[in-house]
Please model this.
Amino acid sequence: MVAGERIIGRYALGQKIASGGMATVHFGRVLGDIAFTRVVAIKRLHERFAGDPKFVSMFVDEARLTARVHHPNVVSTLDVVVHQRAGDESGEIFVVLEYVHGEPLHRLRQALGGQRLPIRVASGIAFGMLLGLHAAHDARNAQGAPLRIVHRDVSPQNVLVGPDGVARVLDFGVAKAFGRLRTTEEKEVKGKLAYLSPEQLEGKSLDQRTDVYAAAAVLWELVTGVKLIRPENPAEILNAIMKQRHDPPSRYTNESTPQLDALVLRGLARNPDERWPTARAMALALEDCMPPASAPHIGSVVERIAHKALLERAALIAEMEANVAPVTLEIVMNAIHEPPTRRDLPVVPESER
Model:
């Protein structure tokens, strides 16, 4: 065991790396047989919500939904663990996710300090985001019936990009879908305010075109380097979404083209019927009018922008893994004859570190 870790089932829960409104995300490790270990991310519902059926159902639904989405541009859900807390009759729920070494778009933008991403890098990130969203929209349950997932919270906070150059969509906590444990009413407004579609604000029926609108807003900002909706006051934000006429990206950068302007503005149309019908249709049109940069190219830009943050996180992972003994033939042979318990995994003695 590593100091400070807590065992939950076959996982070790480590240091917190992020926190949102509903949950925190921690480093974690799979504790397998024969000293097998793998770094994962473990999402933990905030304690104040753990006893609320509404939040518990949202948390479990997120795991159930994303487990049905299999795509390189979506952060994978690997497992769900219900762990009994000592001295407590109730259990605590943890969702185990693929660990992605990367940064969310909003932090990349902050690190840029007002500079714009290269236009083809912006296109490549948006292209991956759109394909990930389409995979979610197209997901089906075990019987093959469409789940009709609508993310409802597409924003720079929920798109992760790593040094591998792959953009991944995450956080389906407020997604609308068929077959959820708790039915979400259309009139419930969910998501980051500045990226909500007009129909979300009006409480109308939602479909995948709602996510197309939010993705177009993210693309507009990636291309221009500025916010689409600038007011800070919530009332003014709502008014801007419903009434503001959106400028073409070319007003802010000469790298945009008339074709790219038209593509983005179509995605931002107030009437869903005037938008791209699917996220994939928008992605293919984007590929034609602004060819995306390759994944290695995008990854090199991400490494340059987020170098410090990535190094710090890599150092934390290295520290965590340095305390785990390497697998040796002796360990393997001993495990075959007498399988160890997961709590008795070998640890490097302090004198040998």
